[in-house]
């Protein structure tokens, strides 16, 4: 991998590139259109990046943003995207960068969501570095220069790169670096230079940390008693500390802020909410939290959440008794509409520390913020859409969906305009304006509900609304007035949204089973949820699939394999192989509940851009199920494996290449192997089996060829003789 050596050695004076900042964010595929003429086979690599990128992302990246990072890390020689991009960024002709504006805007949007690192390096181009010494050693030659950098804005992309083990960190173009010390010469021709990133905040004091230090008793004592409060500010809520707590990563927190950072279900560790580094928790700290009841909020944080969310939580808590027009309150209420899922994550954490305060704060937010608050745990605040600043249809639609799946009740249509009737947890029972709510007295009396006049709830200062919430414990009814949304569509869409946002630590199996055999859209949502989870957390994905199989009759599972909707068939196969490729127990479940014939029938049936990878890995997994091997060695199946191998090499897809090579070595199909001297096949297999940089593929290829040599099908000098081996039955056309 050469990105770590792609450094701009010339100290040029070039105009900064700012034009892409104002460029709108385009879809990933569209950003490739202006640069297609500069990179050969860009369409293929774009497709691979979109398929293999890290998604869903725990940092809130969209699939397009994650694909942009993944494509930047892909290597295919001198024409690799990162090489062509950096040549343009370092060019004296600044117009050469303009075709890259769409990609740079999408790439920077992704970097903004990733957590910052402490050890980075960058020049005019986009540069790569690593926080792992063993990775750096691979690129040090006889005469090399090693840069040690203290940086502020580095982004860790190890979860989104084509090489996840490289611990790669990236900085955007135009970063300024200052030389802190002259070159230090080591034995063997190695030169070490110490650099520091320069930012607009010139007073930022950073300490570079190599490795994850352990908390000791001495460090705890120093952090709590060592210095005065004026010299410390809590990293989260920016308040002065009377009793500072300092983590080994040098970030400082007050006792309460640090207490809510204890990892869920992991009592011995704490995650720094600024840099996400994991540290051991000393016994002394645990005692303090226990006596001060701080452990009650231990589930407030989960790993990999953005600093913005954590600061928002602590702001709400600090503002418990002062809801005036303070700068902090203006800041929290000025957040513009963003993804509903990110807002929901923010308020999910707010509800644990101070649910009352965050509900009141949301009264004057946008509809998207309001909907996210409802979705967090069913908090409903009576308000008027006419008084919201963003009076748009999209916001109202999100609000309606949130109301539905927060309560789990079916939306009921009353008359022409009424969509949702549900309970409200806030408000004072007042006389209802029947004409405004479009409800007849008979309906209100028949349902046995009290109703509220929501216009009156918006009167008066926030403190008055707060007092109403604290004193009144009643359950009035909230009516939402729509004229443009069909109730059934909202119910189905809300259920799909609920599945997408489900917590995989404690999934609702009843809901998943209901949706799996519900409408097509609901079924797709379940299968996509499980399949995407197989990328990020295979253990939880396997657990969910296993539970669904045990709860469901085999005939119903077979109906998914033979579903009339092709997308559902493909998503089901994808969920199976992503969840069960390394799980023997799930493989036995597949054999018991689905059977080998149904699996193979699905394997060799469809053939398109989505299903060929799923079929290949499923076949590899199925090769170890008893009774399925004879079906895999048929002429039809072998022909499919050849096609899968060719497709995998064409798109440089590591998973499909490794799958087919392993499959041919495992299932004993060597009796169908034949010599073939076709030029295109030779090129495919030369790249795949002999010169492939992946060690796993090389190992699988060696095992495969040793099997062939042992059966006398090829001779040990087959490579020198120019013969190639392909999965092709001799009697096939």
UniProtKB/TrEMBL annotation:
SUPFAM superfamilies: ADP-ribosylation, ARM repeat, RING/U-box
Keyword vocabulary terms for this entry: Metal-binding, Zinc, Zinc-finger
Stretch forming the signal peptide: none
InterPro entries in the record: ARM-like, ARM-type_fold, Poly(ADP-ribose)pol_cat_dom, Znf_RING, Znf_RING/FYVE/PHD, Znf_RING_CS
Gene Ontology molecular function terms on file: NAD+ poly-ADP-ribosyltransferase activity; zinc ion binding
Limits of the RING-type domain: 234-276
Name recorded for this polypeptide: RING-type domain-containing protein
